Amino acid sequence: MNTILAWIGALYPYSFLALLLLFSIWFIFDVNKLKIKILNIILFLSALVYFASFFSHYPIEWFMIVWFLRDLAIFTLFFKFWELFFRFKIVSGVLVAVLAVVFGYLYYKNGKLPNILPKEKTEFVFEPSAELLFELYNLEQMEQLKLLLKDFNPEIIPAFPHLKDSANTTLDNCFTINLKDSIEASKVKKILDDSKIAVWVEYNETIEIEPINVLAQSQGDKFTCRSLNDLYVLELWAFKYMDIDNFATQIKKKSPQKKARIFILDTGVDSRHEDLKDNYISLSAKYDSDTQKHGTHCAGIACAVSNNKIGIASLNLNNSLTSITSITVLPKGRGTQEAIIDGILLAADQGADVISMSLGGKSTDLSQIAYNKAIEYANYKGAIVVVAAGNSNENAKFHVPAACKNVITVAAVDEKLNKATFSNLVNEMEYKLSAPGVNIYSTVPKNQYEKLSGTSMATPYVASILGILKAFNPDLTTQEAFELLSETGMETQNTAATGKLIQPYKALQKLKKPTGKSLVMSFLRKTIYY
Asked: Which residues lie below 8 Å from residue 448, measured CB to CB, with a gap of 6+?
């Protein structure tokens, strides 16, 4: 039954457009005093299809009145347009003729009609072999730069050409350098560092998925859960420490302002997985499969479909608070700094509320200017960035993007709330939290499930609760979210090294109500885009 309703609901936008088109035809015949009985019947049936799809598309709630009034307003304006069109036939005819001539000429000249609206870029291309990433002070200095580096015969490529909001960052002045001989990279970097052409220069470091730690199963205490009916819910030992039943009750008491979007920057996500597909929003088919299993596993932790009697559950207990979207930045488990930054910028431009990155590695460039600029851009666009601390059992300050500014860095704990043996220490991180990261059961490609360990698994738990908090208060900033989760968090056996363990129920209890501005923006967003 749910499948049938979903199919009918998917017809909603098309049924509305069909209704407008049929009404236009009916109006033409009515103005000319022509009565065609079959047209009346078709118009009536199209209206029935519209209403059926409308009620299947939207959840039954009071806001349905607003959505219907919106459609009614569009229909009324459309009716008035047709009325004016036929009242002033000569003017309207001339206008249509002029437009036909203009578009006809453009088609004749270009072989296609022009795009009135620019196509939004949802993919990026990066040069995996580029050695350096840098920013120019002035784009007019490009010829001077080429002259300076002529002996190295470099390929200089714009790093982030798809950037949407260039007025709020200088990343549009960034380029990569691809050298024929990578050994020359240090020489070229020194030349650029010494010149007054580049603002900064960094190595375009390669990042790989760190070895996944599968640890011996500890005998953790069993727990009970009344709120979930998922097949493997009792495998989710993390929920033992998250007061899931009270959290479910708290969710029912509050009204979300939006459905928050969590972007998983990883190896891709199996978008057809039985326990992910209903919560998954595709950005590009390019990102809808997993080249490994890492990204799909993280996606399940962040936003698996809950209470569907199959698979696992996520903190999105009623499936109405968050969605997941994938951007592949580590194809085949490996990617560059440029690709990861590209992913951050793309996610921010596509409306991410939370950007989850279960990736990282040691860095030789401790300043990390490019990463920090990208994170600043994402914050400006309203996204909270959450990253894995790393799996080397050392200080996270030597790992990126864990050590970057304005990110929430996540350490992993085991079933006894000890710091996981592999987890990096987050003592010196500005915003630090912990979540379960040992023997975490989650989704992997082809409708399978598996236990994996790592700070990679802890990170999407934090991303999940951040998304839920943003669903109730879209204005929440990184600092506010961290302070809330830290204040309400649970002490671990090594809190100094791990940060507080997230407590979703307590955090949601203490979450402040959204501001008036946020409520207005949420109303408009829900009215226009839902």
From this structure: none
Q: Which of 72, 87, 102 is where one domain is finished?
A: 87
Last residue of a domain, one of 188, 204, 220: 204
The verdict on 475 and 364 lying in the same domain is yes
Q: Which of 356, 442, 453, 456 is catalytic?
A: 456
Question: DSSP readout, 214-225?
Answer: -PPPP-PPP---
Active site residue 294: yes
- For residues 13 and 80, membership in a common domain is answered with yes
pLDDT, tens digit, 9 for 90 and up, residues 475-507: 999 999 999 999 999 999 999 999 999 999 999
Number of neighbouring beta carbons within 10 Å of residue 167: 6
Contact at 8 Å (CB) between 485 and 415?
A: no
122 within a domain of the structure (yes/no): no
Of 479, 344, 345, 454, the closest CA to residue 389 belongs to 454
Catalytic option among 266, 275, 290, 414? 266
Banded pLDDT at 518 (limits 50, 70, 90):
low
Q: Domain range holding 154?
A: 132-204
**Catalytic residue among 294, 365, 434, 464, which?**
294
- The mean pLDDT of the chain is 88
CB 326, CB 120: distance < 8 Å: no
Does one domain contain both 266 and 370? Answer: yes
The total number of structural domains in the chain stands at 3
Distances (CA, A) of 298 to 314, 316, 357, 415, 470: 11, 14, 9, 19, 19
Among this protein's residues, is 456 annotated catalytic? Answer: yes
Does the residue 219 lie in any domain?
no
pTM: 0.82
